[in-house]
Amino acid sequence: MSCELCDAQELTRWYYQDDFCFVAECESCSVPMVVLREHRREVSAAEREVLFGHLEQVAEEFFGDKEFFFDGLRRQIPDHFHAHARPRPVMWWGPGGV
Ligand SMILES: [Zn+2]
Ligand SMILES: [Zn+2]
Known about the structure:
By secondary structure, the chain is of the alpha+beta class. The chain has a single domain (8-87), classed as 2-Layer Sandwich (HIT family, subunit A), CATH 3.30.428. Helices cover 19% and strands 24% of the residues. It contains 1 helix and 5 strands. A hairpin with a 3-residue loop joins strand 1 and strand 2. It is globular. Bound molecules: zinc ion (ZN) (2 copies). One zinc ion is lined by residues 26, 28-29, 33, 84, 97-98.
Protein backbone atom coordinates (compact mmCIF):
# COMPACT_ATOMS: atom_id res chain seq x y z
CA MET A 1 0.00 0.00 0.00
CA SER A 2 1.41 3.35 -0.91
CA CYS A 3 1.29 6.32 1.39
CA GLU A 4 1.03 9.84 0.11
CA LEU A 5 3.18 11.16 2.93
CA CYS A 6 5.96 8.60 2.49
CA ASP A 7 5.92 9.36 -1.20
CA ALA A 8 6.21 13.06 -0.58
CA GLN A 9 6.86 14.14 -4.15
CA GLU A 10 3.27 15.13 -4.63
CA LEU A 11 3.51 17.83 -2.05
CA THR A 12 3.86 21.29 -3.42
CA ARG A 13 6.19 23.62 -1.63
CA TRP A 14 8.83 22.62 0.91
CA TYR A 15 9.68 25.01 3.70
CA TYR A 16 11.95 22.90 5.85
CA GLN A 17 13.44 19.42 5.91
CA ASP A 18 15.82 17.23 7.87
CA ASP A 19 16.21 13.52 8.58
CA PHE A 20 13.45 13.50 11.15
CA CYS A 21 10.67 15.47 9.54
CA PHE A 22 9.77 18.01 6.90
CA VAL A 23 7.40 20.94 6.63
CA ALA A 24 5.64 21.34 3.29
CA GLU A 25 2.58 23.00 1.90
CA CYS A 26 -0.34 20.58 1.92
CA GLU A 27 -1.65 20.11 -1.58
CA SER A 28 -5.25 19.82 -0.42
CA CYS A 29 -5.33 22.56 2.16
CA SER A 30 -2.65 25.03 0.97
CA VAL A 31 -1.31 25.47 4.49
CA PRO A 32 1.98 24.29 6.00
CA MET A 33 2.06 20.86 7.56
CA VAL A 34 4.78 18.95 9.35
CA VAL A 35 5.30 15.32 8.38
CA LEU A 36 7.30 12.68 10.20
CA ARG A 37 9.83 10.94 7.94
CA GLU A 38 8.80 7.58 9.36
CA HIS A 39 5.53 5.84 8.70
CA ARG A 40 4.03 5.49 12.16
CA ARG A 41 0.99 6.76 13.93
CA GLU A 42 2.24 8.16 17.21
CA VAL A 43 5.22 10.18 18.37
CA SER A 44 6.66 10.73 21.83
CA ALA A 45 6.17 13.98 23.72
CA ALA A 46 9.76 14.98 22.97
CA GLU A 47 9.33 14.24 19.28
CA ARG A 48 6.09 16.14 19.23
CA GLU A 49 7.86 19.17 20.62
CA VAL A 50 10.46 19.07 17.84
CA LEU A 51 7.84 18.57 15.14
CA PHE A 52 5.62 21.40 16.28
CA GLY A 53 8.65 23.62 16.81
CA HIS A 54 9.50 23.36 13.12
CA LEU A 55 5.89 23.80 12.11
CA GLU A 56 5.53 26.88 14.28
CA GLN A 57 8.56 28.55 12.71
CA VAL A 58 7.20 28.01 9.22
CA ALA A 59 3.65 28.95 10.19
CA GLU A 60 4.70 32.21 11.79
CA GLU A 61 6.23 33.29 8.51
CA PHE A 62 3.43 31.84 6.41
CA PHE A 63 0.56 33.46 8.28
CA GLY A 64 2.31 36.67 9.30
CA ASP A 65 0.04 38.62 11.60
CA LYS A 66 -2.84 36.20 11.22
CA GLU A 67 -3.68 33.81 13.99
CA PHE A 68 -3.13 30.10 13.47
CA PHE A 69 -3.42 26.88 15.37
CA PHE A 70 -2.05 23.35 15.09
CA ASP A 71 -4.51 20.83 13.77
CA GLY A 72 -3.41 17.33 14.73
CA LEU A 73 -6.50 15.70 13.31
CA ARG A 74 -5.60 13.28 10.53
CA ARG A 75 -8.49 12.72 8.23
CA GLN A 76 -7.16 10.83 5.25
CA ILE A 77 -3.88 9.34 6.40
CA PRO A 78 -4.34 8.50 10.09
CA ASP A 79 -1.44 6.02 10.18
CA HIS A 80 1.30 8.47 9.33
CA PHE A 81 1.95 11.26 11.79
CA HIS A 82 1.49 14.76 10.40
CA ALA A 83 -0.13 17.97 11.54
CA HIS A 84 -1.37 21.11 9.80
CA ALA A 85 -1.04 24.71 10.83
CA ARG A 86 -4.36 26.29 10.03
CA PRO A 87 -5.58 29.87 10.18
CA ARG A 88 -8.32 31.10 12.46
CA PRO A 89 -11.17 31.41 11.92
CA VAL A 90 -11.74 27.93 10.56
CA MET A 91 -13.75 28.42 7.44
CA TRP A 92 -12.31 27.99 4.07
CA TRP A 93 -11.25 24.41 3.54
CA GLY A 94 -13.49 21.43 3.05
CA PRO A 95 -13.46 18.02 4.65
CA GLY A 96 -11.25 16.65 1.86
CA GLY A 97 -7.97 17.71 3.46
CA VAL A 98 -5.23 15.20 4.10
ZN1 LIG B 1 3.53 7.00 5.31
ZN1 LIG C 1 -4.12 19.10 4.20
